[in-house]
UniProtKB/TrEMBL annotation:
Protein's name according to its UniProt entry: Ornithine cyclodeaminase
Entries under NCBIfam families matching the protein: PRK07589.1
Gene3D superfamilies on file: NAD(P)-binding Rossmann-like Domain, ornithine cyclodeaminase, domain 1
InterPro entries according to UniProt: NAD(P)-bd_dom_sf, ODC_Mu_crystall, ODC_N
Stated family: Belongs to the ornithine cyclodeaminase/mu-crystallin family.
Highest rank taxon of the organism: Bacteria
Organism listed in the record: Neoaquamicrobium sediminum
Amino acid sequence: MSGLVARNLNMVPFVSVEDMMKLVLKTGTERFIQELAGYIRDDFGRWERFDKTPRVGSYGHEGVIELMPTSDGELYGFKYVNGHPKNTRDGRQTVTAFGVLADLGNGYPMLITEMTLLTALRTAATSALVASHLAPKGSHTMALIGNGAQSEFQALAFRSLLGIERLRLYDTDPAASEKCKANLAPLGFEIEIFRSGEEAVEGADIITTATADKRNATILTDNMVGPGVHINAVGGDCPGKTELHRDILLRSSIFTEFTPQTRIEGEIQQLDADYPVTEFWQVLAGTADGRRGERDITLFDSVGFAIEDFSSLRYVRDLVGPTGLYEELDMLADPDDPRDLFGMLQRAAARL
């Protein structure tokens, strides 16, 4: 159990963006990703214990706001997250998020935390965890198509879990690729920037697509994908948004998180509703095959699922307690007599 306990019943521990950054840096970013991947693996290993539902979304012209809840019967967690690609024009993040972990036994929140940074870390940790079971053995080179806010985290995750050292970058905005290279080159990566996606994927063992535009697009065409590669398709995460040509899907062994959600939001929304896919937890459980041969194209149709956020909340709760990198928020009413909420209000009035 975690040592993270509020001093009083009205107080809830809160991890701010500032404290999250300190926590990640104190731990070490790659170690943080590795340990977080371990929590995700453990929770996927007890998949059948969790409540599972596609996330609840409110879609607008410019983007989406979603709630992602789940419970393992003892703890309850949810994440609030948005996706608004045009935000960057106003100096805002495309994705922002916060999350709550609660005790299912009494309903009290145990942790409130920023999850904008944490979502980037958990998405990368999940990508690399899945790739560690599906990518070609001895992979060293990854193409990163889309070099926005997620790209550096993906690179660090794939190095820490798979040993990826060579990166081949492409983005429709050259400044994004230059930003990614400037951030990662001092960390020891061998990096090349290319003028097209076709050039970037040449010789890559793994192809990661992480674009933000909320529309059907063809980031990878069928002729760009040769036998034996692993595709980590991160960008598709809502209805009407895809990155891969349909023919690539038909040539691939496809792996999902929670298939009913992925059929709504992922690359497989392009396929028939009964098209066969494999949920990643089945590979971990040994009930389904992962990579079947050297020429197999494996595709992780990643949309992000609530259990990954639950794992992230558990990890932060366990990690942050001894560090003191949190505040306590006066979030919960705590009258002397639990039945006398109005009396608490009246006594407050007398003090004003």
